[in-house]
Design goal:
This protein is α/β, with parallel strands linked by helices. It is 41% helix and 13% strand. The radius of gyration is 24 Å and the shape is globular.
Amino acid sequence: MKKIKKVAVVGLGYVGLPTLVAIAKTKLYETVGFDLNKKKINDIKKGINPIGDKEVTLYLRDNKLNVSLDEVVLKDSNVFIICVPTPIDDNYEPDYSLVESAIKLVCKYIKKGCHIVLESTVNPGTCEERLLPIIESLTKYKVGKDINLAHCPERINPGDPRWNVYNINRNIGSINKKFNKQIAEFYRTFITDAKVNEVSSLKVAEATKIVENTFRDINIAYVNELAMSFDAMGIDLKETIEASSNKPFAFMAHWPGCGVGGHCIAVDPYYLIKRAALSGFDHRFLKVAREINNGMPQYTVDKLIKEMKKLNMPLKKTKVVLLGLTYKANVADIRESPSMKIKEILESLDILIETYDPYIKGKYNCLEDAIDGMQTIIIGTGHQEFINSLPVILSNSKVKIVVDGKNCLDRDQIKKMGIIYKGIGR
């Protein structure tokens, strides 16, 4: 590892910033970070954590990071770690533009012996089919001979107090085994409480993350379809899953909800669907899973409308508050959030809708104000504040219907207040 003196992280979001901090904490390398977001860079320089990660917050209290909007900061780096988003467009087509822009950027500063590591989630074949040609067209170097191209898919789980960059096992693949050994040894210097597994190829490394997230998407689709089925049959799915979970083998609990969001599960299956189609294979199962999960925001709204009709509540005069806009509990990330889709559906119906999320700046400063005067509630995100405070607030409210899109409240407690409670699959 003596040859690696300077490490650059490109993209300082939920993945890149914790990674930069982890590397900086080793004090083995000069570390720099680059991002195009001026506010984010300024916040980091001031010691303000823009992503809410606990380890980052603790580090920034007493330490400075060398981060910049100026790409010159990348000069003389031996390792470039790319952590930029890989979203999908409105047609569910993979968008590689940010990854390709990042590759073009670092190509200005690479030199012989450098390692370029992509942590962004991509489909199998992306590094060799898309990125390698860009590198060799913009530089004088041969990938695999002069420089290394590697993939180490990120496994950070935002908002998770238990799992972090230090203790989650990682997989890494490179253009050849010699380079892979070198870059794996580098990763082991900052991933201190987990294993770094060297896989046989770039494609295997790329495939691991896609398989992980697609597995979750498929299983969530399964329980979401069960939720619709069990709603029709009057069976409590939550209780059923809990009971099924007492089997000590061959069962893994997944939970239904108002949709699937975030930068991984709601996106990654489309990368595999698209790439497989180019090779002549149709992922029918994955498409159906995506269709089911994409339909859950509408199903959630339909549950509210059904109960409103039972009470003769007019759509255009009834006040609805949507609680939670982020894609998961206790984080400020709205990427691919099903709550945002619920909001769009409600607005299209001309329903009188208000929103509140403690992690997103909005009209209301507190939960109690957001509930005041409302007649119906949809819970789109299971924030801890809602679980802790909502039952007390509801007991003194005018709310008649609660649709719990995350099944996070105590159903019996809500019903005892004379409020109609409807969950997903219960």
